[in-house]
């Protein structure tokens, strides 16, 4: 499998404090990869450098072979790197489908068109995206009445409107109940399988990570200490050292 993302010796220093220290990894095309690690490990800092919000102190980022280090968020987004935000970016006063239509207008460069024609134009396409995230039955509801998990699914539909090649999801299931977390990540896994999108995500819930990620990376104090399959990561002594303090992060081990 070829790579969609390659990160080489990435570093971020805050006044001498190394939040991300010499991190190198790759994400393959069509892969669902998790980046896990304790609070403060440097996961969000890493994501922000991939998206262009933060300039790396050192290192390089390549998207499908093209160097994108130091490019602006919009330039990176335009090259097909999508992102879902921890705080939902939907317009509360609009309906579910109108939010998706807005994203489609932006994607097709008819930015904020008020022509009724434009709204009609993208309704079918928007419905298709809502169908992908199982939200078609809620198309005409105002966003303000949506349940939190449904807002997250809408957010995912909006991100998909821009046909990302790579989707970055920093704690996509934050604030959700355990069953809803599993459901949302199942949906993401289906999208990865059906649409060939690559996804890099961070997540606290180890059940979600081990159930869905193809490969898992572990970051600790800014350093990548593991990168491999679920079994490899579980059996990694350094990972066990970091997580054993928490006791039951690996459910199977706890039940064994
Ligand atoms: P994670 O997402 O894994 O919880 P972060 O990337 O948010 O970790 O943070 C990594 C480390 O960098 C933490 O110790 C945090 O306090 C520090 N940090 C993050 N942002 C800044 C900043 N703007 N200035 C100084 N230190 C920061
Ligand atoms: Mg974070």
What this model shows, in words?
Keywords: ATP-binding, Nucleotide-binding, Transport. It holds the Pfam family ABC_tran. It comes from Salipiger abyssi. The chain is an alpha/beta fold. It folds into two domains: 1-80 and 164-256, P-loop containing nucleotide triphosphate hydrolases (Rossmann fold); 91-163, no CATH class. 39% of the residues lie in helices and 25% in strands. It contains eleven helices and ten strands. The protein has helices spanning 43-51, 73-78, 96-107, 116-121, 123-132, 148-160, 178-195, 206-212, 230-234, 237-244, 251-255, and strands spanning 3-14, 17-28, 32-36, 58-63, 66-67, 81-84, 166-170, 198-202, 215-220, 223-228. The chain has a six-stranded mixed beta sheet, with helices on both faces. A four-stranded antiparallel beta sheet has the order 2-1-4-5, covered by helices on one side. A hairpin with a 2-residue loop joins strand 9 and strand 10 (223-228). 39% of the residues are buried. The model is unreliable at 252-256 (pLDDT under 50). Bound molecules: adenosine-5'-diphosphate and magnesium ion. Magnesium ion binds next to helix 1.
Q: If you compute it from the alpha carbons, what radius of gyration comes out, rounded to the nearest whole angstrom? A: 19 Å
CATH homologous superfamily classification of the largest domain: P-loop containing nucleotide triphosphate hydrolases
Could you tell me which ligands this complex binds, including any ions or cofactors? adenosine-5'-diphosphate, magnesium ion
Average pLDDT, all residues = 89
Low-confidence stretches: 252-256
CATH class of the largest domain: Alpha Beta
Q: Give the CA-CA distance, first to last residue.
A: 34 Å
* Percentage of residues in strands: 15-25%
Strand and helix order: EEEHEEHEHHHHEHEHEEHHH
CATH fold assignment of the largest domain: Rossmann fold
Helix content: 25-40%
Query: Mind describing the biggest β-sheet?
Result: 6 strands, mixed
CATH architecture of the largest domain: 3-Layer(aba) Sandwich
Largest beta sheet: strand ordering: 6-7-8-3-9-10
Give the tally of structural domains: 2
Number of helices: 11
Shape: globular
- What is the total tally of β strands? 10
Return the structural class: alpha/beta
GO molecular function, one term: L-isoleucine transmembrane transporter activity
Pfam families: ABC_tran, BCA_ABC_TP_C
Domain ABC transporter: 5-246
InterPro entries: AAA+_ATPase, ABC_AA/LPS_Transport, ABC_transporter-like_ATP-bd, ABC_transporter-like_CS, BCA_ABC_TP_C, P-loop_NTPase
């Amino acid at each position: 499998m070829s790579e969609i993302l390659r990160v080489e010796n990435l570093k971020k220093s805050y006044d001498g404090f190394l939040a991300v220290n010499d991190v190198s990894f790759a994400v393959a095309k069509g892969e669902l990869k998790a980046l896990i690690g304790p609070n403060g490990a440097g996961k969000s800092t890493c994501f922000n450098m991939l998206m262009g919000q933060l300039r790396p102190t050192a290192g390089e980022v390549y998207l499908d072979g093209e160097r994108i280090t130091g490019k602006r968020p919009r330039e990176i987004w335009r090259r097909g790197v999508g992102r879902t935000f921890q705080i939902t970016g939907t317009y509360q006063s609009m309906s579910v489908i109108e939010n998706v239509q807005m994203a489609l207008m932006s994607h097709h460069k008819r930015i904020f068109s008020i022509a009724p024609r434009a709204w009609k134009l993208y309704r079918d396409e928007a419905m298709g995206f809502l169908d992908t995230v199982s939200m078609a039955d809620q198309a005409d509801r105002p966003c303000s009445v949506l349940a939190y998990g449904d807002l997250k699914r809408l957010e995912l539909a909006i991100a998909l409107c821009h046909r990302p090649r790579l989707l970055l999801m920093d704690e996509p299931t934050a604030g959700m109940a355990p069953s809803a977390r599993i459901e949302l990540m199942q949906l993401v896994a289906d999208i990865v399988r059906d649409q060939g999108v690559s996804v890099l995500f961070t997540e606290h819930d180890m059940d979600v990570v081990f159930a869905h990620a193809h490969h898992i990376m572990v970051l600790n104090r800014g350093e990548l200490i593991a990168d491999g399959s679920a079994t490899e990561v579980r059996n990694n002594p350094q990972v066990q050292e970091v997580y054993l303090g928490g006791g039951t992060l690996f459910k199977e081990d706890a039940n064994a």
